[in-house]
User: Fold these one by one.
Assistant:
Number 1:
Amino acid sequence: MAIYALTGFSLVSLLSFGYLSWDWMKPSLVADVATDPMEKPLPPTFTRPPHIIFILTDDQGYHDIGYHGSDIQTPTLDRLAAEGVKLENYYIQPICTPSRSQLITGRYQIHTGLQHSIIRPRQPNCLPLDQVTLPQKLQEAGYSTHMVGKWHLGFYKKECLPTRRGFDTFLGSLTGNVDYYTYDNCDGPGVCGYDLHEGEDVAWDQSGKYSTFLYAQRVSKILASHSPKEPIFIYVAFQAVHTPLQSPKEYIYRYRSMGNVARRKYAAMVTCMDEAVKNITWALKKYDYYDNSVIVFSTDNGGQTFSGGSNWPLRGRKGTYWEGGVRGIGFVHSPLIKRKRRTSWALVHITDWYPTLVSLARGNLSNVQGLDGYDVWPAISEGKESPRTEILHNIDPLYNHAKYGSLEDGFGIWNTAVQASIRVGEWKLLTGDPGYSDWIPPQTLTNFPGSWWNLERLTDGPRKSVWLFNITADPYERYDLSEQRPDVVRTLLMRLVHYNRTAIPVRYPAENPRAHPDFNGGAWGPWASEEDGEDWEGSREPLKSRNKKKKKCKICKLRSFFRKLNTRLMSNRI
């Protein structure tokens, strides 16, 4: 039998704060207002393709938005969501690269070879060049396409860059995380470089500008210079609220009463991002785009709880296949929506945006084979049933195999040591090691001296490698039904077998020393030529600059700290 243990707080204490009394079936604390077609006329049929603004935030936790009961102020996001359609059955991937690759290709990561981890700065790897991307399809439909923000889909060749994958313009970073002001990124001791690019050039002149403001300003400039009579697609991939935790002081001051320092800085970053979205929305209205626009808001994965994020009341965190890692914040705001001001429980996955947006743009999908996404616009706009009934969260054959998994535990058809997860209807199955599995209330609950993240933990008695949950009835994943419903377990394992047969080999090459920024003038950027294959290996060591002081790798120190922290957490499991 499962044993629940609270460290430093009782369950009664949590209830007294109202955190466990949150009604899952009424997730919005902002009242939904049903729109009666008899009271207001439905929006007119599209007379021309709509302008599309896709906003993706980085590491924003499920709890970290006002309408999910957060203590963080997000008035713009709350208003846009309240006036549009909130997606409360919306799924993303647990880490950066997989979510971005599935958004851009409309395919599960097992179908692009990116099913393991992320693309690292020194890997000769990128989004497969044979994939036709979302912006390329929109270009075919006559759209002007622009990207602002974080790419994180590989850059070892110029062919991998955003401007070669369908975007007319690009301002942003190529790697996974950079300093918000200096745009430096360290990928190991002494392996540091500048990472802010304008098109295919290094944007040295933009250093010192806070990225959230810089990106919002660039969106406004794009809108000001473009004609609203011509369709435009802008992909805004904010760096916020990924580490490092940096924000202008005036935003931190708003949260000075928060005892947890990480949470305080994180909250400031979320509110700053919210104001950036406000400025983007204002620009859409100022330059006459708004009335024919569709704004999509999505997070890329769950929040990182030891960096200030919160996924409460969901289980788990970023990097895990528990709901806290894969259930995202999502909403659509548009004057073109037929049934506004409501919450949708239609099942939606990040792969669905590809066919949905291409269809909205009146693009051609007939020549695109093998998409895993569905056109969910009728479900969003009209409240119709979602065409999606299942989601493959992932199958990762390279992730550390679970110690207690076996083919026998998988009825002889699936090795349960392999990390995998799938949802079919109301059922969700996990095998292998799904990742850190605690429930972590918002960090502002107390000022714990030390292990505030150990608040509520779970052990399952004998070591496990299979979990089954009825997500509709048990969205917090507290009641494992794998032993009670072996029939359902077997059915979902068969679905994993089906998907695994369609998987392509994992693309995860070794890091190459030639990628060192010292070979590229001190900046991260393409380092392989067109003739170099993905297995090309350089032999030179990075050059030492006599004129530069060796940079201190603050990010490297943080990574080392979090690795040690995670080891400590796992070794102390109850």
Note: Residues 261-286 form the longest helix (26 residues).
Number 2:
Amino acid sequence: MPSFDEVLKEAGEFGRFQKRVFFLLSQTGITFSSLFASVVFLGRAPGSFWCRIPGAAELSDRCGWTLEEERNFTVLPLHLGNESVRGECQRLDVTWDTSASCTSPLARSGNHSTGTLPLAPCHGNWVYEQPHSSIVSEYDLVCGNAWMLDLSQAILNLGFLAGAFILGYAADRYGRICIYLLSCLGVGICGVIVAFSPNFTVFLIFRFLQGMFGKGTWMTGYVIVTEIVGSDQRIVGIVIQIFFTLGIIILPGIAYLIPTWQGIQLAISLPNFLFLLYYWVVPESPRWLLTRKKGEKALKIMRNIAKHNGKFLSPHYSEITISNEEVSNPSFLDLVRTPHMRRNTLILMYAWFTSALIYQGLVMRLGIIGGNLYLDFFISGAVELPAAFLIIVTIDRIGRRLPFAVSNIMASVACLLTAFLPGDIPWLKTTVATLGRLSITIAFEVVYLVNSELYPTTLRNFGVSLCSSLCDLGGIIAPFLLFRLAAVWLELPLIIFSILAAVCGLLVLLLPETKGISLPETVEDVEQLPSHFGKCGKKRKHGDTNSYI
């Protein structure tokens, strides 16, 4: 009775069939990354705005004022009294009625030229030159409400976290492709509702749900790809992330061509409905079918894979076995019970948290530093493309640990230098910041691979899922840390990023090197990993479990 990996080797480990499925499911990375980074363009600054005096709208209609004339009557008197007041978060504490003069509406309110008129905070009566350009102007996320923009991104990441647990569990129980298709439908529907939300509360609710389903599409698509290829083809897990980068590169083009935030939201949401067509071309994971005791269906799919790959399975195969079994109901205690497992778990959790927080912080920072947002975002995305190629070239030659550590240290140095470089040398500041973005991208992608190699077969799926959940926690904290600290000093977040990355770079040096050794099958194997450092690596066993996210 052959094992699944033996049958897969005979059917083709990465033939025409797997390449087709890989290409189709990789498109999910484009839509997911667009959702992930969309806040930069959905929440961009709305341009000029000011606070409208009560009664100004009616008086403006009667007098036939243009918006510029209304602004002059509203804002200029503020400058006479206090040049630092720009009329955005404060207004004159007066009320205009229809009897006010069209040429001097403040004439009956006192001697405004001396600046003696009292001021009042603005509450929901803002006027924007570009009223529907972003969610900031749509839902008045300015002045005292500015923190709500941070909240919108935190809510999205909270959805990612919920999706990792809820849909990750559902995919293990009900099937990969079923949950993938359900998630695609959910992302599309929730994305449309977000675009037409009547208020900010509805926006937040469905942005959370879109994040949850979005994580389901990315996670299950990744798992399906890694489960239908041979164990020697784990490089696919790195290559698929190139499509994530492609989404980052495409997003500024979409935002440049579409002037409203609703249009951008629809552009990144509607393509998910096209993925429903995969029902007819992407099969259920045969590995999952075997874990659910559905060997006949799994064998039928394997024969179809072999046929498309130009191979032929023996007609004598009537049943397939799988060599690896998962521990029933694993818990966090299983990951910290022994010394080396505890060390690996804590360091990996910190690495996930740090990589996500810094990566997302650097992405969102582009929206607040000025300059050409579209060009800067495109360049910073394009620089991520070499990351996957650098990983592919280095990890099987010099190992995992050194590139992991060096990329974090380089990100730390780049963030620190960027913070203190003078602004009058923009090309140098941009170059160093770009190097930091490339470095943290490498660290982010390496942690996917290293995490799966440092857990035993019996705990790998649970361990990687738990550790990677810290990625979403970092994403929840990132917008608050970035925008609130940047309000104190624009470069202060970079100092925090630098410290976090430096600590991470030092900590990952404590992890064992896994280059050239077989994947651990038991906790005891993990405890013995450091003893392999001075020895020739053992060849990886064919048939070990693939990595999951």
Note: Residues 531-549 have pLDDT under 50 and may be disordered.
Number 3:
Amino acid sequence: CGRGPGGCRGGRTDMALRCAASLAAGRQPRGPRREGTMRWSSAAKPSAVKINEKASREKILTLESMNPQVKAVEYAVRGPIVLKAGEIEKELRKGIKKPFTEVIKANIGDAHAMGQRPITFLRQVVALCTYPNLLDSPSFPEDAKKRARRILQGCGGNSLGSYTASQGINCIREDVASYIERRDGGVPADPDNIYLTTGASDGISAILKILISGDGKSRTGVMIPIPQYPLYSAAISELDAIQVNYYLDEENCWALNVNELRRALNEAKAYCNPKVLCIINPGNPTGQVQSRKCIEDVIHFAWEEKLFLLADEVYQDNVYSEGCQFHSFKKILYEMGPEYYNNVELASFHSTSKGYMGECGYRGGYMEVINLHPEIKGQLVKLLSVRLCPPVSGQAAMDIVVNPPVPGEESYAQFIKEKESVLNNLAKKAKLTEDMFNKIPGVHCNPLQGAMYAFPRIFIPSKAIEEAKAHKMAPDMFYCMKLLEETGICVVPGSGFGQREGTYHFRMTILPPVEKLKILLEKVKDFHIKFLEKYA
């Protein structure tokens, strides 16, 4: 009968069937076999074979044999508290009674999951790029079609399904450069310094990967703010670099103090080679917006100490407080003069995930890297080429962020209305959250100047701290777990972001709709008061 899928010829198939039947009947199979071996055929039905579980050999990959750097990685935003929230959701679906009817996931800045509507124009352009037949539809505006055609012309075969250059589609990088020039009041931007990325996270990880080197005391140290976004500590652990903490000043609205930078740097020189300084502006999880003077001081410090600057600016559209304004590090660096602008190495990051767009799932982003050594530029492109290219639909989404409708185009009025609605709503929710938290005994919340989170400080009584230790939990993890189990509200403990010893916080997004946010905050208030009564 020819060679079958199990490698049998002719009568061997009958033999395999007889073998399977014998096994099903509990008898040892008969027939020719090599000594010490059993020849199995795919013709045998799986149900006819009894698996001896005790005979399975030891796994190659175990917790002991796995990469220790991966095991050291922690990412609190999707950590144990979120896994517990998922378990509770499953229980609710099964009809298991809880003191609440739904889990509110306030742990992550996922705008659309919280009910924010997409920006119409962005979705129109991506739809046109995804299904070009729609270019003939009268349902789509001409300004959207114009952008879609331009993006498709930059794709191989005029298809979003083709690979692109590793740095990204050229015309989109040109649009990013034009956007940066407009944003920064004419400061020049070179498309060749633009790299499209899979969200900002991809760019940050790539730059850190190329920066880290050395052994022992010469191992690269990476300075990060505390509290920080856990991407940084996770990437540092994965790359086996040295984390160097500098603390933001909670008593001064989470301000960055250069004296604290200097303290952290000088202490770190004893055990590593600090050469990277990471800044998050506006802050995550802390929501502060840095002043121009602060940025100038940081740039001077980086220039003086020969540090490579990473400026995480994904919340640049999210500024709410009066008197606060976003200043890009690139712009301030340029305005400080050629001594700084021609020498300080700077990588800046932006994303489609935050701002007014909230398009987390497209994984669109870019980084601009300036003053990079020409030979390192080639190495960076080589590194990025290993992942071929960022998602092309994400590149298209990023293009609309940097190349939106302008006055005079037919989509402008709707676009600006939607954009302002989102940002005004976020500003309202930022103030609401701050005010309501500060009315709760034992809770203090600094002003939410920007971004999309609150990071309130919470008082945890000593009795609760002792109970947390008994459960082998950080006190704020214990608090957040109790909050989840009693109210269904999922927030992230401050210990996952870092905090000064003896202080406790949690991070909560302000993204839920206003009425739902009010209910959430009232539930937190009621829980906290009961928590204090129980443990005080």
Note: The domain at 68-103+413-535 is CATH 3.90.1150.10 (Aspartate Aminotransferase, domain 1).
